[in-house]
Amino acid sequence: MSVAARHTVRVLETANTLTKLRARSIVAVRRVEDVIDLNYVGLVLATIFFALSVTPSLVPRDWLFQGLISGVNAALGYGLGCLLEWAFRRWIRPRIKLGAPPIWVRYAVKSAILLTSALSAALMLVQSARWQREITALMGMEGTDTAAYLRTGLLSVSVGAAVVAVYRTVREIVLFLARQLNRWVRVPRELAPMAGILVLVVLTVTLFNGVASRAFFAVANSAFSARNDHTSPNAVQPQQPERSGSPESLAKWESLGFEGRWFVSHGPSASRIAAVTGKPAREPIRAYVGLESATDGVTSADLAVAELERTRAFDRKVLVVVTTTGTGWVNSMAAGAIEYMFGGDTAIVASQYSYLPSVLSFLGDRGKVATAGQELFDAVYQRVSARPEEERPKLFVYGESLGSQGSEAAFDGLTDLRAKVDGALWVGPPNSNRLWEQFVSRRDPGSPEIEPVYADGLVVRFAADGADFAGPGPEWWAPRIAYLQHASDPIVWWSPDLIFSQPDWLSEPRGSDVSSQMRWWPFVTFWQVAADLTNAQGVSDGHGHRYGSLVLDGWAAVTQPPGWNPELAERIRFQLEVAEDFERATK
Predict the structure, then answer these.
(1) Alpha-carbon distance 35 to 178, whole Å?
(2) How confident is residue 199, by pLDDT bands cut at 50, 70 and 90?
(3) Contact call for residues 463 and 550 (beta carbons, < 8 A)
(4) DSSP state of 541
(5) Per residue in 444-490, pLDDT tens?
(6) How many Cβ atoms are within 10 Å of 330's Cβ, its own excluded?
(7) What is the gyration radius of the CA atoms in the chain, in angstroms?
(8) At what angle do helices 151-180 and 192-209 cross, to 10 degrees?
């Protein structure tokens, strides 16, 4: 055989080998695709949703938290892509003539999509790490490391795959139901899948609205009631008769719950107040009713009033009605601030309405906080209004987070509020607060949503720091109403409206601690801010849902205590911050 012939044979053998390898590769790729069943339109949308999910939100995130959020976002994008491709194949493809491209072209396009998606995700993670460092810098916190943040990608892939797997399981259930409906009920084959979806939706909604939701909240109640029964080693039964839980109290120490026992066992004493203010002081009254305190047909509100009567609280200069958060927590800094301001000539009353944290209470039984807040205030107000006007204490209301929503519920509107109280301080109000929403939506033209001005600030004012109380003008009529809200507090700004509409706070100039790169995207922003709710307090004071000693400035603005001056304010602030540090370290 000639050299040329041998060369030709080798070329043909090589070509044949390459053809076989390509065929085997295609078979292998097809087998992998059969297992993974990857939708490439879905992959494109998943990459876009992933990229949007790592853009800045209200509070900083570590790689683990971001990975969970981005994985769910990517799964949502993947599902949307699958839906779009299905719609194209069903309604558009049959009407146009498109030839099938060669197999190698199809696989080249798929490879390009895979490579582009991976590179895009990696680049977005690098940029996201920079954004996270920017947000942490705005809040005076330590930033994240880029290399560590890249782990977000791997976690997101795992979470996204898990969500898609759940969807596919649901899809198989729907197809199974469709076959059964077609076989046994004689539902037409074309309508059977839709009927299967309808049956599954009805069963799911019924389950989660009934059995599942009741079971979940029963388990949650059981879990958190165990904590409620626990007593911190640093919470000791008070002996002063001015405290609930004392030997003279109608609300027994054992019945106050974890938060109630802490509240009544701490706080400034008369001697401490006198030492800080340099003036004589009285022992402050702290009345508290736990979920298990009221017995023998007596309501919690009636027992709370009885405690106020027992301690002669209605003879004090100031009486504050506090609506607690879900677990019964009362902000010790807010309570201590009012006690220092008025030399202990104060009474604070609060009651517990749930074992659950505010987030679960908000989801599970939002009406409970409204009922509890209204019943407690109405009972106290009825007793106060029965006294001669000159003998009544100044009546203030306070609520934080979900507690502000319950506190607002006691009033029909601004007129009713101003007629019944001498002032109100509400901190970190949820976006669904009725009165807050009315004031913000009717704010003066030109004032931003994060710093609204209502009726020239004559009655209601909003503040993110102490200086905000001075504006927009010097005239602020009594009774004064004040809201504390940070531009970076997701509890204030989260709303279902974020799904489809851009809020004013994202179309107006951003707050000082919110990234200028934060943008609104349908669905994505809703999910991002919803995720921020769980980390709202994982920031430094003065940001997110951490209001710190700003409540002192809020109380000073609302109550206008006599003899108030900057030096006294700083001495009290120092004491409050020391007490808060102790609570965080030992509670």
Answers:
(1) 24
(2) low
(3) yes
(4) T
(5) 999 999 999 999 999 999 999 999 999 888 899 999 999 999 999 99
(6) 25
(7) 31
(8) 120
Cβ contacts of residue 4 below 8 Å, gap of 6+?
none
Q: Is residue 238 reached through a cis peptide bond, with omega within 30 degrees of 0 on the bond before it?
A: no
User: HEC string of 87-126?
Assistant: HHHHHHHHHCCCCCCCHHHHHHHHHHHHHHHHHHHHHHHH
Mean pLDDT over all residues of the chain? Answer: 88
Compute the distance between CA of residue 552 and CA of residue 334 in angstroms, rounded to an integer. 7
Q: How many of the other CB atoms lie within 10 Å of CB of 133?
A: 18
- Tally of CA atoms within 13 A in the half-sphere of 116 that contains its CB: 14
- Between strands 460-463 and 423-427, the pairing is unpaired
| pTM over the 0.90 mark | no
**Predicted confidence band of residue 149 (pLDDT cuts 50, 70, 90):** confident
The pLDDT of residue 94 is above 90: no
Question: Does position 190 have pLDDT exceeding 80, yes or no?
Answer: no
DSSP letter for 183, please: I
What does the angle CA 356 – CA 358 – CA 361 come to, to the nearest 5 degrees? Answer: 60
Q: Is the peptide bond before 452 cis (omega within 30 degrees of 0)?
A: no
What is the distance between the alpha carbons of residues 353 and 300, in angstroms, rounded to a whole number?
9
User: Mind listing the pLDDT tens digit for each residue in 307-342?
Assistant: 999 999 999 999 999 999 988 999 999 999 999 999
**Cα–Cα distance, 303 to 251 (Å, whole number):** 8
State residue 201's pLDDT score. Answer: 58
In this structure, the strands spanning 346-351 and 423-427 are unpaired
Residue labelled with tokens 């938290």: 65
How far is the first Cα of the chain from the last one, in angstroms, to the nearest whole number? 93
Residue 565 pLDDT > 90: yes
Q: Is 516 exposed, middle or buried (0-12, 13-18, 19+ CB in 10 A)?
A: exposed
- Which one, of 351, 350, 348, 354, lies nearest residue 336 by Cα? 348
Matching residue, tokens 């304010």: 569
Calpha distance 320→331 (Å, rounded): 13
Looking up tokens 């004090």 gives 316
No. of helices (H) and no. of strands (E), the chain: 22, 7
Across the range 80-106, mean pLDDT stands at: 82
* DSSP letters for 198-223: HHHHHHHHHHHHTHHHHHHHHHHHHH
> Between helices 151-180 and 40-53, what is the axis angle to 10°?
130
Q: Which of 286, 233, 242 is nearest to 264 (CA)?
A: 286
Tokens at 181, concatenated: 């409906």
AA identity, residue 270: A
Q: Is 311 left (phi over 0), alpha (psi -120 to 50) or beta?
A: alpha
Give residue-wise pLDDT tens across range 506-520. 999 999 999 999 999
Identity of the residue numbered 267: G
Instruction: Give strand pairing partners of 285.
Output: 347
